[in-house]
Fold this protein.
Amino acid sequence: MASRELPTLSDGELAPPLAPLRSQSRLGDTGANILHDLESRAQNARTQVREQRDKLRARNDAINARSGRNLAFAVLFGVVLGALLLSSLIFVKELFIPFAIAMVVFATIELASAMRGAGRDVPRIPLVAAAVAIIPAAYFLEVVGQWIALLVGVFVVTVWRLVEASVSKDRPPRKAVWGDFLAAALILIYVSYLGSFTVLLTAQEDGQWWVLGFLIIVVAVDVGAYVFGLNFGKHKLAPKISPGKTWEGFAGAALTSVVVGILVSLFLLDQQWWFGLIMGPLLLITATAGDLTESMIKRDLKIKDMSSWLPGHGGFFDRIDSILPSGAMAFALYFWSADSTLW
């Protein structure tokens, strides 16, 4: 067998031996290790994301359980509703009329349906008609129109129920018919009449800013009560009426009402700072009273929410219960601030 000659350079010297090439298997192993490492890191990342998601979901479920509602949806719906409200008040305040009509009509339907479910034969058609009529009447005809619409509504509802009872095959007892009258009157006064004060306030000069201001305070009261009650609540405020409310939450709402009341008075209503010390606590009282009144009605009717139209919120009546009496208080404060000689 012939011997293999070693390569030589141009000057005759022997060339250095060539370095051995890496084998294809070694390169394959390195690539596989890199892929394995990337897959491992991706798997760890997916596991961490899944663990964080489960923690957030568990925390959200715990908050929803304590608050009694879907908080995420509640916040989202509140933002959307607030945007519509701001648009109607800031740009063209007449647009607040259909907004108010919709809220009052839906709340009227909810409360009337709940009472019918509890055995009260409340006529919904005339109640809705009265709710539709009283809002524009309050805006364009002010107090006179407000009262006329209310009295006509009471008359129509009464006649409607009397006719229904008289033509019914099974005539209800007189006591039951009187109970229906009282239930219908409650809806007219609490929802339609009180709700019209907010529209009446909007119709006044710069009234839209007062509506916006009192709504900000009422929302702040609700948020303050929720946050303080959720984190510090131990002592029940009214356990037989609303078990979820606590004195700690009420204290937080009181603090919030004063702070926000002063800010609203100074920067939105062009009032002295001390006006917020009056407006904030008064709206705290009306908002809390409205919330407790709605809780008493629901407890009497043996229901949790007026409806399920707004997941996370219950119903429209559940959302405006604090606003209804607060609108009447804000209307009184508007004229008191104009007539007061304290400053």
